[in-house]
Amino acid sequence: MQEPTFLILTALATRPLHGYGIIQAVGELSDSEVRLRPGTLYGALDRLAEQGLIEVEREEAVDGRLRRYYRLTDGGAAVLTREVERLRRRAATAEAQLRDRGGIIPGLGRIAPTTP
């Protein structure tokens, strides 16, 4: 799963959001490292809706413009949960490799290599 998709699903995990709200949440979740443009976001939202991972919860008119709120489906939550677990396994593997190398592990500092 690509990082923008992961972040969109994560943004919708707690509450429904409209497009601009998703863009803001993704920026916050990524410490401003991922910046979604509207065209990219709406293409991703259409794709995620087609896959059944998100759905439109409601629509409302604001200043004459339609605002669509999206929510994570149960299937989307299951996919996000699996992705979180996959990323945890990858991070644990990287941490073990760094430990074996005697590298620096965030939060742990420099680690001496393990000796067999």
UniProtKB/TrEMBL annotation:
<dbReference type="Pfam" id="PF03551">
    <property type="entry name" value="PadR"/>
</dbReference>
<dbReference type="InterPro" id="IPR052509">
    <property type="entry name" value="Metal_resp_DNA-bind_regulator"/>
</dbReference>
<dbReference type="InterPro" id="IPR005149">
    <property type="entry name" value="Tscrpt_reg_PadR_N"/>
</dbReference>
<feature type="domain" description="Transcription regulator PadR N-terminal">
    <location>
        <begin position="8"/>
        <end position="81"/>
    </location>
</feature>
<protein>
    <submittedName>
        <fullName>PadR family transcriptional regulator</fullName>
    </submittedName>
</protein>
<dbReference type="InterPro" id="IPR036388">
    <property type="entry name" value="WH-like_DNA-bd_sf"/>
</dbReference>
<dbReference type="InterPro" id="IPR036390">
    <property type="entry name" value="WH_DNA-bd_sf"/>
</dbReference>
